[in-house]
Amino acid sequence: MAFFSWLGVTYYLTKDVVLDTLRTITDIAPKGSMVVFDYVDTEAFVPEKAAKHKQLMQAMVQRVGEPIAWAIVEG
Fold first, then answer.
1. Rounded Cα–Cα distance for residues 75 and 61 (Å)
2. Contact 13, 40 (CB under 8 A)
3. What is the DSSP letter of 4?
4. Which secondary-structure segment (H or E) carries 34?
5. Residuewise pLDDT in 10s, the chain (75 residues)
6. Which residues of 43-57 are buried (b: 16+ CB within 10 A; e: fewer)?
7. Under a CB-based contact definition with an 8 Å cutoff, are residues 37 and 9 in contact?
8. What would you measure as the largest C-alpha separation in the chain, in angstroms?
């Protein structure tokens, strides 16, 4: 059994890369293994629905030039 911690990563990848990586983990990990990951929900991009901490996070990463792909909302 294996444990994969993939926190703080998916935001920087495209949807295809995220799904390919999860498929690869499925192919190589022993049965019963676990993956923990986080992602950004689509409502984070609707100003009137986005939580204040999501609005602050978006502003912060824009200021520092982070290349966030917001993978889950693409495509």
1. 22
2. no
3. E
4. strand 34-37
5. 999 999 988 888 888 899 999 999 999 999 999 999 988 777 766 777 777 877 787 778 778 887 666 544 444
6. ebeeeeebeeebeeb
7. yes
8. 43
With CA atoms as reference, report the closest residue to 37 among 57, 49, 22: 22
* Residue 29 DSSP one-character state: S
Give backbone dihedrals phi and psi of 36, rounded to 5 degrees, phi first: -115, 125
Residue 21 structure tokens: 């990586």
Break the chain into its structural domains and give their ranges.
3-73
Tokens, residue 45? 């991009």
Residue 15, Ramachandran bin (φ over 0: left; ψ between -120 and 50: alpha; else beta): alpha
**Torsions phi, psi of 56, nearest 5?**
-65, -40
